[in-house]
Design a protein that fits this description.
Distance between the termini: 47 Å
Strand content: 5-15%
Number of strands: 10
Radius of gyration: 29 Å
Largest sheet: 5 strands, antiparallel
Helix content: 55-70%
C-alpha cells in the first residue's frame, strides 16, 4: 500500500475535521462514530486501499472498540461483537449472491446471445435505432441482475455491432452503460442499494416507536420510477447524443485478431455477408466450384431458416440455393470481384449471421500441425477438415512463406510445423485443444461452455424465484436462493461456476458496512446529523428537504460506493423525515434510488467498465453525465411525489 501526497493532505484535513466535530457533538459515542464515519469516507474517496478492504477494516475496528472502550471513554463497544458479523447472513447479502448466480445461469444457456442477434437484425446501422434497442434491452436485463453484469454481458455485443455498423464504440457504450445503471432502479433487486434498503428499514425500526414503524417495499414498488428514468436516459441520448457523446475515438471497435493476422501474415481478410438472388449463376453450384477459383472462403450459411456452421455442416460439396445468405472471409478486392461476377447482394453489415460471427462465438485462430500428427502427409481435402473439425483454413504458413486462398492450400499435403490460419467457432477450437493432431496457438479466446439444452430448466427456476417473490411472504433471500439452487441442482450451473459468478468483493463490501450503519443509528449519530441538517432546511417545504437528501446521496455515491452511501444515509434520511413530519420510508427510498445517480465521473463500476474500450476521458463523463445527473434528480423527484 502506497500513499501519495494528495492522500496525506486529505488525511490531515479529515483528521482536523474529526477533531473539530468532537468538540461540538453532544456525546463521546457520537464523537467516535463520527470519526470512524469520516475515516470510512476518506478511505473510500481517496482509495487508500480497496473499498472491500476498507469496509472490512472498519468492521474490525468497530469490533475492537469493545476491547478499547475504557481507553476511549466509552462504557461499551460501539457495536455488540455478537452481532458484528450479522451482515454476512443478512437478507441483503444472501439476495445479492442469489441474484448473481441466477444471472450467470441465464447467461450460461446462451439466451443473451440470441438477444444480441435480434439487436443486430433489427437495429440496422443507424445510431438513432441501435441506441434505443441496446439501451432498453440492457435496462430491462439489469432490472433483475447486477447492472455491471448486464453491462459486461453486452460489451462484446456492442463491440461487434460497432465493427459491423461503422459506428464508433464511443457513441454506443455510454448510452448502454448509463441505461444499465438506470435499469437497476426498475425493481427492488436491480441494484445493491435497493436490495439492502428493506434490511436498513428494519434496522431503523428497532429504534423507532410503534407509531413510526415503516413498512418494507415490495419488488415492483419502484417500477414506475425506474421505467421513467430508463425512458429519460434513452430519450436523452436519442435527442442529445449527437451533442454530448464524444465523436470517433481511436478505440478497438475493429477486430484485434484480424489486425494481428494482417500484421503477422499480411492477410487483408475481412468478414462479409452476401445474399444469393434467385437469378444468380451461383445457384446450384457447390462451394468447391467457387472457393479456389474466386479466392473466397465460405464459413457459414443460412437458408430456409436453417444456419450451417461448425463440424458436420459446411463442406466442399455443400450446394448453394437461391436466397441463401453466405458468410465469407476474403480480401475486400476478391470479395467485390466475386459479388460482381455472380450478381450477389452484399449486405452493409453482418445481419442474418450476426449470432454466428459474434466475437464471443467465433473468430480467426492459429493452429500448428505437430510432427507426430496423423494428418502429416494428408491434405485438408483428404480429411475434409472444415466438415470434420469445424475449422475453415484461410492461409497456410510454411518455411517463412504465407500461402492463401487461390494457392490451392487445401490440396497441399500437410507437414509437421505447418501453421494454419483458420476461422472457427470457439467451441470447436476448444475441442481441438484436446486433439493430439493439433497444437492450438491461440489461447486467448472465449471458450466458456454454453448449455442451450438447459434453457427450459433456467427459465423454470427463474420463474419459480420470481413467483415466490411476487406471490408469497417468503423472504427475498429465500425466494431468490430457491431459484439459484434450482439452477445448480438441475445442471444449468456447476457449483464451481456458481462460486465464480459471485462477486465476493461486493459481498464483503456490503456485509462489512452493515455494522457501521448500525453504529450510526444506535449511537444517536444519525439523529444528531439529521438535526443539524434540519436546522438548515427544516423550515422549507417537504419536497425541498427530500431534494436535499437526494442531492446529498448523489454526492456521496460519486465519492464512495453506492452501498456505502446507502448504509450511511438511510438512517440519516429516516431521522430527517421524522423531524420534518414526512414519510420516513419514502425518504429512505429516495436515498436508495439516488445512489444510482452516478454519471458525473467514472467511479461507478459500470462507468469504469466502459471507459477503456470506448476510450472515454473524465471530461466525456462530465459533459454527458452532468446533464443526466440533473435529469435523474428532476424525474425521480417528480415521479416520487406523483406516486407517493
Amino acid at each position: 500500500m502506497s500513499i501519495n501526497l494528495k492522500q496525506i493532505i486529505a488525511g490531515v484535513l479529515f483528521a482536523g475535521l474529526a477533531f473539530y466535530l468532537s468538540t461540538v457533538v453532544p456525546t463521546i459515542e457520537i464523537a467516535w462514530v463520527t470519526a470512524i464515519l469520516l475515516l470510512t469516507i476518506y478511505l473510500f474517496a481517496f482509495e487508500v486501499v480497496g473499498v472491500d478492504v476498507a469496509a472490512a477494516s472498519i468492521m474490525v475496528l468497530l469490533g475492537l472498540t469493545t476491547l478499547l472502550a475504557p481507553y476511549m471513554g466509552l462504557q461499551a463497544g460501539l457495536v455488540d461483537n455478537t452481532h458484528l458479523f450479522d451482515g454476512f447472513a443478512s437478507n441483503a447479502v444472501i439476495s445479492i449472491i442469489a441474484v448473481m448466480i441466477i444471472g450467470a445461469g441465464l447467461d450460461k444457456t446462451g439466451i443473451m446471445t440470441k438477444v444480441a442477434a435480434f439487436i443486430l437484425r433489427v437495429g440496422g446501422t443507424t445510431e438513432s435505432r441501435i441506441i434505443p434497442i441496446i439501451s432498453s434491452t440492457v435496462g430491462v436485463i439489469s432490472s433483475f441482475m447486477q447492472n455491471v453484469g448486464a453491462a459486461a454481458l453486452f460489451l462484446p455485443v456492442v463491440s461487434r455491432i460497432s465493427a459491423r455498423s461503422g459506428l464508433p464504440m464511443s457513441r454506443l457504450l455510454m448510452p448502454m452503460g448509463f441505461c444499465a445503471i438506470l435499469g437497476g432502479t426498475v425493481t427492488m433487486v436491480g441494484s445493491s442499494p435497493l436490495i439492502l434498503l428493506n434490511d436498513l428499514i428494519l434496522t431503523s425500526n428497532k429504534a423507532l416507536p410503534a407509531e413510526q414503524q415503516m413498512e418494507t417495499w415490495s419488488l415492483f414498488s419502484v417500477t414506475p420510477i425506474g421505467l421513467a428514468l430508463v425512458a429519460t436516459g434513452i430519450i436523452y441520448f436519442v435527442l442529445a447524443g449527437r451533442f454530448v457523446l464524444p465523436s470517433s475515438r481511436d478505440t478497438k471497435s475493429k477486430d484485434d485478431a484480424m489486425t494481428y493476422f494482417r500484421n503477422t501474415y499480411g492477410l487483408d481478410y475481412e468478414l462479409f455477408e452476401v445474399e444469393v438472388p434467385e437469378d444468380s449463376e451461383l445457384v446450384g453450384k457447390t462451394l468447391d466450384d467457387i472457393e479456389h477459383e474466386d479466392k473466397v472462403r465460405v464459413i457459414a450459411s443460412a437458408s430456409g431458416g436453417q444456419m450451417k456452421v461448425g463440424p458436420g455442416t459446411i463442406a466442399r460439396d455443400t450446394g448453394i440455393a437461391a436466397g441463401a445468405v453466405l458468410g465469407i472471409i476474403a480480401s475486400p478486392k476478391h470479395l467485390l470481384d466475386f459479388v460482381d461476377k455472380y450478381g450477389l447482394d452484399l449486405h452493409s453489415s453482418i445481419v442474418a449471421l450476426g449470432e454466428i460471427f459474434a466475437a464471443t462465438k467465433s473468430g480467426v485462430a492459429e493452429v500448428v500441425i505437430p510432427p507426430s500428427s496423423n494428418l502429416v502427409g494428408k491434405s485438408a481435402r483428404d480429411v475434409w477438415m472444415r466438415k470434420s473439425y469445424g475449422i475453415a483454413m484461410v492461409a497456410l504458413h510454411r518455411d517463412g512463406e504465407t500461402l492463401r486462398e487461390g494457392d490451392d492450400i487445401r490440396s497441399m499435403p500437410l507437414q509437421g510445423g505447418d501453421t494454419l490460419v483458420v476461422h472457427t467457432q470457439w467451441d470447436a477450437l476448444a475441442r481441438l485443444q484436446k486433439d493430439r493432431n493439433f497444437v492450438v496457438i491461440t489461447t486467448e479466446f472465449p471458450h466458456e461452455e454454453l448449455r442451450p439444452t438447459k434453457l427450459l430448466h433456467a427459465g423454470v427456476f427463474f420463474a419459480i424465484a420470481l413467483g415466490l417473490v411476487l406471490f408469497t411472504d417468503l423472504r427475498l433471500s429465500v425466494a431468490l436462493l430457491t431459484g439459484a439452487m434450482g439452477m445448480i441442482l438441475s445442471g444449468v450451473l456447476k457449483i464451481d461456476e456458481a462460486y465464480t459468478a459471485v462477486s465476493w468483493k461486493t459481498v464483503f463490501l456490503l456485509a462489512s458496512l452493515i455494522p457501521l450503519g448500525l453504529a450510526v443509528e444506535t449511537s444517536g449519530t444519525a439523529k444528531w446529523i439529521a438535526e443539524q441538517t434540519l436546522n438548515i432546511v427544516g423550515g422549507m417545504p417537504t419536497w425541498v428537504i427530500q431534494a436535499s437528501v437526494a442531492i446529498l446521496a448523489t454526492f456521496f455515491t460519486l465519492v464512495m460506493s453506492n452501498v456505502g452511501a446507502t448504509v450511511l444515509l438511510v438512517p440519516l434520511a429516516v431521522n430527517i423525515a421524522i423531524g420534518a413530519g414526512a414519510n420516513p420510508a419514502v425518504f429512505a427510498l429516495t436515498v436508495a434510488i439516488a445512489t444510482s445517480n452516478s454519471f458525473l465521473i467514472p467511479t461507478h463500476q459500470v462507468n469504469a467498465l466502459i471507459m477503456g474500450p470506448a476510450g472515454y476521458r473524465v471530461p466525456d463523463f462530465m459533459r454527458a453525465g452532468g446533464i443526466m445527473t440533473i435529469l435523474f434528480l428532476v424525474v425521480m423527484m417528480l415521479m416520487m411525489n406523483l406516486i407517493f
